[in-house]
User: Which sequence fits this backbone?
């Protein structure tokens, strides 16, 4: 069944893939000579956007599906149906029995996920290249999905052996896998490598004024914080940007009080619109000039600090995260073997 | 080597003589338990079980539900590990390795099979997991039973499933076949067929058999050796022949006690008469008593009742102390 589903995906990709390559070669590749790169790229990225999204989701959820449907029932169903009494009284020790199962089904999990990831990575490569945001599709491409799949499978097996019931094991496996993935993505991954920092002077053309609500408490208080200068995200192709901040020489962030003190004229701009309407009209020329002056003034003591991971580290991150999940999968396999050998039934 | 040890421990005993603790001299033991116990949580499913089952018999393990039969057999095949004591099967530790596993065939209670797999799948499963697998014999047996190899195990009747489970256990060519209540859920016809089949296998392959049941009638049909297990202790063990030759029913008038060399297993007294089931090496010659032979079922029931009474007494004493 998994093979059939994979075949369907492969056929769909084989039909649309060459068209994407052709489109890239005729629109995005010559855009520098044509001088229409932003529009050409944007138009190209609209091609097969839904398919690209769904393929990404498929690669993201496949490891979870494997953990829930192949991993969790592997031992739990034997215990639930009582067939362990048949399986474990043949001329093979139960440790070996489980080791072989882990090897065969684990290899199948890696193979299925690997083929899907390979196909999707190949298919989406023109789009990914144009999007220049490799870290944005980190978990959906290349190597890491394989490690997620093996991890999810071993997680399911071990939870199943501990709970001894199929349905609860499937549910807990899903919850645990999602929790681990979220933790790894949002907490662990940013800490794998120390980020690079880049500083440059404030650019009046790339710095705006705004206020952002930070966190739930700000939202609950119901009012926007005072306006501050906000730099546009820098254009570093393929980089994973942690933050873009305005800081002084000692690393202190620019506060709205400083902005107010340096640029008293801006306070009016920030006030409520006289008509009460929030429709953004063209920015008046004097306002723009005022902001530019302000940026220049603030820029005397403050500069822009970009914290990021350069695109060149993409594969280092892929290998690190793959290694971490494979190691976790091995530990879980050992735990599963121990449970089956020592704790059951 | 094994023979030596057993003979050394119990010198001078006649083979097959019934004993209280199940220690039987002579021949090699297929199963030896010594102080064996298994606890689940706070409940002891089997405690302080000491018993020896000699080789070359079809042994019936009989006892009431909850006596620990299933636990004892699962300990013997290594599905569960003992909490206390030791158990050796064919001289080895249960499920110690592939060689030990290959020597013991097991048909578990309710004869579990994979509902989604066909009979042919089960035979392939057996071939892959047993190095001594006899595929021809297995296929022949399925054919003789009139089963379609493409049939899914989930669609088989209880009797057919039991036959499939027996086929799997036999085709690995074990030295000892252990069956846990194999016919408990079968209708009388399937039960008779299964047991007849089992006897055939035991005779053909010269394999020792231990099967548990709570029905004495089943055992009477196929076994030649009986172990009565109640309140997780062996009450009596021996060949059926010996058990019947050494147990008698005595009926006498009045409330007198039978001769002192008779061991009373069960006593039933009314105002006018007293009836005893006793054990003795020979029929008592006292003319005051009417001596009658007993059936296997009567012997087994007498021991089970005795154990039950003893259990009640023990419980009462424990309560009195508390």
Assistant:
């Amino acid at each position: 069944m998994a093979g059939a589903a994979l075949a369907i995906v492969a056929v769909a990709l084989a039909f649309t893939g060459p068209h994407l390559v052709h489109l890239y070669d005729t629109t995005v590749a010559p855009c520098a000579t044509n001088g229409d790169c932003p529009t050409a790229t944007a138009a190209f990225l609209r091609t097969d956007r839904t398919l690209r999204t769904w393929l990404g989701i498929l690669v993201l959820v496949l490891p979870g599906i494997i953990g829930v449907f192949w991993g969790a029932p592997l031992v739990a169903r034997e215990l639930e149906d009582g067939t362990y009494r048949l399986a474990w009284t043949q001329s093979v020790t139960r440790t070996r029995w489980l080791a072989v199962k882990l090897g065969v089904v684990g290899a199948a999990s890696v193979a299925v996920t690997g083929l899907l990831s390979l196909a999707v990575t190949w298919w989406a490569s023109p789009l990914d290249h144009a999007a220049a945001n490799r870290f944005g599709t980190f978990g959906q491409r290349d190597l890491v999905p394989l490690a997620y799949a093996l991890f999810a499978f071993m997680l399911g097996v071990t939870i199943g052996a501990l709970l001894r019931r199929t349905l609860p094991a499937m549910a807990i496996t899903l919850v645990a896998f999602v929790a681990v993935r979220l933790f790894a993505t949002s907490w662990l991954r940013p800490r794998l490598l120390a980020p690079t920092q880049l500083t440059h002077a404030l650019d009046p053309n790339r710095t705006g004024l705004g206020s952002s609500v930070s966190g739930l408490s700000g939202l609950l208080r119901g009012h926007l914080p005072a306006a501050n200068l906000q730099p546009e995200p820098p254009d570093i192709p393929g980089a994973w940007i942690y933050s873009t901040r305005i800081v002084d020489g000692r690393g202190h962030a620019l506060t709205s009080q400083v902005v107010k003190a340096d640029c008293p004229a801006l306070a009016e701009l920030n006030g409520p619109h006289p008509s009460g309407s929030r429709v953004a009209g063209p920015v008046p020329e004097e306002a723009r000039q005022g902001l530019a002056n302000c940026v220049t003034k603030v820029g005397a003591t403050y500069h822009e600090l970009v914290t990021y991971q350069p695109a060149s580290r993409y594969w280092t991150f892929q290998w690190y995260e793959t290694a971490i999940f494979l190691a976790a999968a091995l530990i879980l396999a050992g735990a599963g073997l121990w449970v089956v050998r020592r704790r059951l039934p | 080597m094994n023979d030596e040890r057993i003979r050394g421990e119990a010198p001078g005993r006649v083979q097959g003589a019934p004993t209280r603790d199940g220690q039987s001299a002579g021949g090699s033991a297929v199963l030896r338990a010594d102080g064996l116990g298994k606890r689940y949580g706070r409940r002891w499913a089997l405690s302080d079980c000491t018993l020896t089952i000699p080789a070359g018999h079809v042994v019936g393990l009989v006892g009431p539900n909850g006596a620990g039969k299933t636990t004892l057999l699962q300990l013997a095949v290594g599905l569960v590990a003992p909490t206390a004591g030791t158990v050796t099967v064919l001289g080895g530790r249960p499920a110690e390795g592939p060689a030990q596993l290959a020597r013991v065939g097991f048909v578990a209670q309710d004869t579990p099979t994979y509902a989604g797999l066909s009979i042919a799948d089960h035979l392939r499963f057996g071939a892959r997991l047993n190095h001594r697998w006899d595929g021809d014999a297995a296929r022949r047996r399925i054919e003789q039973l009139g089963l379609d190899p493409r049939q899914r195990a989930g669609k088989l009747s209880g009797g057919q499933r039991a036959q499939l489970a027996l086929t799997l256990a036999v085709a690995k060519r074990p030295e000892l076949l252990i069956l846990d209540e194999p016919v408990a859920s079968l209708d009388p016809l399937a039960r008779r067929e299964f047991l007849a089949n089992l006897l055939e296998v035991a005779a053909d392959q010269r394999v020792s058999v231990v099967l548990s049941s709570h029905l004495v009638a089943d055992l009477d049909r196929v076994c030649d050796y009986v172990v009565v297990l109640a309140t997780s202790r062996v009450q009596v063990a021996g060949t059926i022949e010996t058990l019947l030759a050494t147990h008698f029913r005595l009926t006498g008038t009045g409330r007198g006690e039978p001769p002192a060399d008779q061991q009373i297993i069960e006593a039933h007294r009314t105002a006018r008469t007293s009836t005893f089931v006793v054990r003795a090496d020979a029929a008592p010659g006292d003319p005051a008593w009417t001596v009658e032979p007993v059936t296997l079922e009567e012997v087994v029931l007498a021991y089970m009742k005795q154990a039950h009474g003893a259990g009640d007494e023990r419980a009462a004493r424990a309560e009195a102390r508390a």
User: Anything to note?
Assistant: The two ends of chain A are 31 Å apart (CA to CA). Residues 203-271+285-298 of chain A form one domain. Chain A touches chain B at residues 81-94, 96-97, 345 (CB under 8 Å).
